[in-house]
Amino acid sequence: MRRDLGLADGIHPLLAGRFSPTRFDASAVVDDGSLSLLLEAARWAPSAGNSQPWGFFVCRPGEPEYERVVRHLAPSSARWAKGAGLLVVTLARRLVGDSSVLYSEFADYDLGQAVAHMTVQAQAMGLAARQFRAFDLESLTQELRPNPGWAIVSMVAVGKAADDAADSRDRRSTADLLSAPWALPQ
Ligand SMILES: Cc1cc2nc3c(=O)[nH]c(=O)nc-3n(C[C@H](O)[C@H](O)[C@H](O)COP(=O)(O)O)c2cc1C
After folding, report:
1. Nearest atom of ligand 1 to the alpha carbon of 154
2. From CA 134, how far away is CA 155, in angstroms rounded?
3. How far is residue 45's CA from residue 99's CA, in Å, rounded to a whole number?
4. Interval between CA 100 and ligand 1 midpoint (Å)
5. Ligand 1 mean position to 132 CA, how many Å?
6. Nearest alpha carbon, ligand 1 atom 14
7. In a structure prediction context, what are the per-residue pLDDT tens digits for the chain, which is 186 residues long?
8. CB 131 within 8 A of CB 118
9. Residue 129 Cα to ligand 1 middle (Å)
């Protein structure tokens, strides 16, 4: 199942070069202009019916909002996320208000695309991103109190990578992508 993740694969260098760091340079700042571009990249993601069911809470070291977020990190993510110049809490709008009516069947799917846009934009700007779920979802939700219908899904640490891609990175083969879902050959 292992495959080479080198540029020889022929995919775009921005995609080939992207990886999720486990160390960030804590001295590197994500400035206002960079933050605006990351949000702009997310804004232009496709979504079902152009529903755009995504939202974000952003904070940087030194800002009052930052303390509200970092205290909910799990020990595993706090180790590296605290070095990032920007933390992004991602939210999906799943329901209409406090009803059980779906706002979008594809809310989480579309949020993922918006975050993918953000991570590739980060890469293009010489930054790197590690998405993560290692935080206390319940206590962070209590802290930030999103509007009814909105759910916190994940977080993204963005900053200057201070390590290289791990040697252990691997991927399923393209053949497996096509065969794994089926019991019989298609
Ligand atoms: C939705 C999501 C949740 C993740 N949660 C964590 C996490 O809690 N802790 C962590 O260290 N990495 C987390 N990751 C990062 C993945 O482990 C990483 O993307 C994967 O190992 C592939 O490595 P790469 O991004 O360098 O290609 C998460 C990634 C995604 C997309």
Report:
1. 1
2. 8
3. 26
4. 30
5. 6
6. 132
7. 334 454 447 999 999 999 999 999 999 999 999 999 999 999 999 999 999 999 999 999 999 999 999 999 999 999 999 999 999 999 999 999 999 999 999 999 999 999 999 999 999 999 999 999 999 999 999 999 999 999 999 999 999 999 999 888 899 999 999 999 999 877
8. no
9. 10
User: What residue's CA is closest to ligand 1, atom 4?
Assistant: 132
Class of domain 12-160: alpha beta
Whole-angstrom distance between the N-terminal and C-terminal Cα of the chain? 21
Q: Say how many Å lie between the CA of residue 117 and the centre of ligand 1.
A: 16
CA 95 – CA 171 distance, rounded (Å): 34
Convert the pLDDT of each residue in 169-178 to its tens digit: 899 999 999 9
H-helix or E-strand spanning residue 120: helix 107-124
Dihedral of CA atoms 71, 133, 16, 79 in degrees, nearest 10, equals: 40
Please tell me the distance between residue 134's alpha carbon and the centre of ligand 1 in angstroms: 10
Q: Which residues line ligand 1 (CB under 6 A)?
A: 19-20, 77, 130-134, 154, 169
